Amino acid sequence: MGYNISTMHIWRMFNGECECPMCKLRVKTECDIAELYLSEAVMEDAEREKVNKYGFCKDHFDLLYSGKNKLGLALQQSTRLKRVDKLIKPVDVKSAVKTAKKLREEFEDCIICRRLEYNMVRYFETVARLYGDDEKFRKQFSTIKGFCYPDYVRLVENAPKAGKHAKEFLEVLYEKQKQSAEEVHKNLTDFTMAFDYRSTSLPPKSASMSLVQSRIKFYGEKSTLPERR
Ligand SMILES: [Zn+2]
Ligand SMILES: [Zn+2]
Predict the structure, then answer these.
(1) Which bound ligand lies closest to the C-alpha atom of 114?
(2) Which of 48, 56, 97, 159 has its CA 20 to 30 A from that of 80?
(3) Would you kindly state where each structural domain of the chain is located, as residue ranges?
(4) Is the CB of residue 128 less than 8 Å from the CB of residue 10?
């Protein structure tokens, strides 16, 4: 089918219980990229140059900092700092606003965000195309719980790529989204009820996870690197 990303991970993530399979794909991709910036590969000139140019955003710095290669990270931060520092020059009042704008742009970029987004664009497209092309995937899609809101929006956006199954794709997507939101809402309600002094029974176990569930529903899943000693 000429996909330029691996569909293997899609099949794997769209299988089983989770709050959002797209988040699972993102977390996997994000951690793979982060591991790359903690590996020897990143010491190659071309990659080093990109890190110097774009740097890391704060979330990705934190992710890298939780990883295993503090020396590698320090070297990358050091060269990036040198580059950024060159941009800091005396500013006169007349050009202050303009200078601040330019500087802000410099700090808003991130090499990991860029690479991640490049991959995610392809994943969203491929999920919709798979839905259009593959009956087995359509079946599998119907077994999932739902998506976080940001990923729901992106799937809706990509729906036309499901071709003649686009209408069905949107309908299933809608149904899943409604059902899963209802479940989160029920768990949140059970949780809040437990604080009522008139309540006599303990809340169900699912209630205790409701805030974490709502975290994923609204903002997506957070990436963490596997723990190391
Ligand atoms: Zn998600
Ligand atoms: Zn980033």
Answers:
(1) 2
(2) 97
(3) 8-219
(4) no
